[in-house]
Every structure is written in C-alpha cells, then in structure tokens.
Design a protein that fits this description.
Layout (H helix, E strand, L loop, with lengths): L4 E7 L4 E7 L6 E7 L2 E7 L5 E8 L3 E7 L6 H10 L10
Antiparallel strand pairs: 1-2, 1-6, 3-4, 4-5
C-alpha cells in the first residue's frame, strides 16, 4: 500500500548507513526476502512486477524495520462507531 516502507541499517565499516525503500504509488507494496546470505527489499506492483530492488549482504545488515501504513479495517470502524454512542441512562435510578 502506498506509504509502506522498510528501513535498512547497514554496517559500513566504521559507521552505519540507513536506507529506505518506500511504496511510492497506490497499489504498490514493499516485500523483503533473505536468500543465500543476501537481504532483498523490493517495491512490487499489484500484478507482482518488481519496480526496484535493494540488495544487501546479510552479514552487514544490523536492522531491518518494516513500517506499514496504519490500515482501517471494517471491524475496527464498526467497533469505534458503537463505542462512540452515548450511554442510555436508566430512568428508574
């Protein structure tokens, strides 16, 4: 989904470097994979076509942080709607 992003912190010898891969358009998502000692972070379209890929040696990756955009589910929406109703007072008290 647009706005999903992954931050990768890599050991660059005496310092660290931070890279970001962001889903830049609607309908795109960010996928991560670790294969044969290589970490791949790719931006992918709805149809599964890879738009761009960042590759890092797994031994150099210090942190991989996935930050999805908050999504509003239908169930959460209905819970919020019911919780916002005012409580009915009992007339007999």
């Amino acid at each position: 989904m647009k706005g999903d992003r992954v931050e990768i912190v890599v050991d660059a010898g005496d310092t660290t470097r931070t890279y970001e891969v962001v889903a830049s358009r609607a309908g795109r998502r960010v996928e991560t994979a670790v294969r044969r000692g290589v970490v791949e972070v790719s931006e992918v379209t709805r149809s599964g076509s890879v738009v761009r890929t960042a590759r890092f040696m797994a031994t150099r990756v210090l942190a991989l942080v996935e930050q999805p955009v908050p999504r509003e589910d239908a169930s959460e929406h209905s819970e919020r709607a019911t919780s916002k109703r005012p409580l009915r007072e009992d007339p007999q008290t």
